[in-house]
């Protein structure tokens, strides 16, 4: 088995770690619109060191995602946040983004990308924008 070196070097202002059992807004592909809006319930928060394993499919998927979408995903993450949602029958796994937020990796399917709205601000801005369009 190979050696894994973990280096935490990404400078970002971290959003808080989501709470297990709590529901959050998520947005498919990070597009903030009603048609891309779903609710996700956090089911598990896995520390990075519990996932680091070259044999782990989740770890392999994370490594692939950070290489393919280097502008989106931070090169390291402190947690893998597992959630369930009507977005897909499979669980979502959120990791840190380059701006300190949370975005799900394409695992176990290639269409699993969604932005986690940890503080509700994205949802709030979507609703405000909708009111503005309707002149309310």
Structure, described:
With 136 residues, the chain is an alpha+beta fold. It contains three helices and six strands. It is globular and about 45 Å long. The protein starts with 22 loop residues before the first strand and ends with a helix. Mean pLDDT is 87; it is low at 4-8.
Gist of the model:
By secondary structure, this protein is α+β, with helices and mostly antiparallel strands. It is built from three helices and six strands, in the order ββααββββα. The protein has a six-stranded antiparallel beta barrel.
Topology:
Elements: E1 23-28, E2 37-47, H1 48-51, H2 57-68, E3 79-85, E4 88-96, E5 102-104, E6 114-117, H3 121-133
Quaternary state reads: single chain
Q: What separation lies between the terminal Cα atoms?
A: 61 Å
Number of helices: 3
| Fraction of helical residues | 10-25%
Overall pLDDT: 87
Radius of gyration of CA atoms, rounded to a whole number: 15 Å
Class based on secondary structure composition and strand pairing: alpha+beta
User: Unreliable segments (pLDDT under 50, ≥5 consecutive)?
Assistant: 4-8
How does the major sheet shape up? 6 strands, antiparallel, barrel
Q: How many domains, in number, for the residues?
A: 1
Query: What general form does the structure show?
Result: globular
Strands of the widest sheet, in order across it, are: 1-2-3-4-5-6
Number of strands: 6
H-E order: EEHHEEEEH
Beta-strand share of residues: 25-35%
């Amino acid at each position: 088995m190979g050696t894994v070196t973990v280096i935490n070097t990404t400078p970002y202002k971290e959003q808080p770690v989501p709470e297990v059992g709590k529901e959050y807004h998520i947005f498919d592909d990070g597009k903030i619109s009603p048609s891309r809006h779903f609710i996700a319930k956090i089911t598990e928060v896995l520390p990075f060191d519990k996932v680091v394993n070259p044999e782990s499919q989740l770890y392999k998927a994370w490594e692939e995602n950070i290489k393919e979408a280097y502008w989106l995903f931070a090169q390291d993450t402190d947690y893998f946040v597992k959630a369930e949602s009507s977005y897909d029958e499979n669980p979502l796994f959120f990791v840190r983004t380059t701006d300190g937020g949370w975005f799900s990796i394409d695992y176990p399917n290639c269409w699993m990308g969604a932005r986690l709205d940890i503080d509700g601000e994205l949802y709030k801005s979507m609703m405000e924008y909708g009111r503005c369009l309707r002149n309310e």
